[in-house]
Amino acid sequence: MNENKNKVINYTQDFGALIALILLMAGISIASPSFRTGANFLSLLRQSSINGLIAFGMTFVILTDAIDLSVGSVLALSTALCAGMITAGVPAGLAMILALVLGCAMGVISGVMVTKGRLQPFIATLITMTVYRGLTMIYTNGKPISNLGDSFILKVVGKGKFYGVPIPVILLILLFLLFYFLLNKTTFGRRIYATGSNWKSAKLAGVNIHRTKIIAYAISGTMAALSGLILLSRLGSAQPTLGSGYELDAIAAVALGGTSMSGGRGKIYGTLIGVLIIAVLNNGLNILGVSSYYQDVIKGLVILIAVLSDRKR
């Protein structure tokens, strides 16, 4: 009896989010035929790529039993610095590479504060979130940075297509495959899970806990910066308020995907499903004409159910 119960629980953990996504899509498709058009699905995937990339980085951090509230501010500051370099005459390709390096460095700073500084992840990343947002406002003087020229590489990142598939969607798929391999097929992935499951045991087994967490934060910062570059390409300017609140959607996607908020358990494909659930929810409610105020309430209730389900498990 207990064995059957455990099988049901494991099945729910592995496929619960996917079943929820399928049911959600079926329900919205019945309510609104315009939802199930090919053009809408492609638009939905393109829109979800930003949150998806940030959520992938957030997954690494949460798996180590930490959290990163600074991703939205990292996105804003790295994007503003990239736009500033381009307007100052730096080639767009080089400026974009430097923006990714800066995003990685900002993630490392958060990781060092958590590990070497021994601050709680919530407090450490709350500090970096506030500082990076302030630096963005100082650098931009609270105004958008535009006049980015006509660089092909900048435009293609956010607006380009390959055989009809948007480049952001291709990046999302490629990075999903990369991170799936890292977490499931490499020693580094096992160290990530071990750090989140029981860091004391992992340390005794020879895992460098500090380095593992710092790398996780570095990945998170890099993904935030990459998302910022996609937005910069799409919008054609760097807005000082860009990325505000993005950390909440990323955390929500990770939680919906079944990753434990206490670390050590979760899958990157679950995060992808969580990202799609949020995207389908936003897209479907917009098509159905539901007020944005009600959308926030509905989204909050869905996240609450996911977190309560995790605690139950």
TrEMBL record:
Primary localisation category: membrane
CDD domains in the cross-refs: TM_PBP1_transp_AraH_like (cd06579)
Segments traversing the membrane: 15-32, 53-86, 92-115, 122-142, 162-183, 214-232, 268-287
Protein topology in the membrane: Multi-pass membrane protein
Subcellular location(s) of the protein: Cell membrane
Keyword Cell membrane annotated: yes
Pfam families: BPD_transp_2
Gene Ontology MF terms in the entry: transmembrane transporter activity
Classification via InterPro entries: ABC_transp_permease (IPR001851)
Record keywords, A-Z: Cell membrane, Membrane, Transmembrane, Transmembrane helix
GO cellular component, one term: plasma membrane
Keyword Plastid among UniProt keywords: no
PANTHER family: ABC TRANSPORTER PERMEASE PROTEIN YPHD-RELATED-RELATED, RIBOSE IMPORT PERMEASE PROTEIN RBSC
The protein's name: Ribose transport system permease protein rbsC
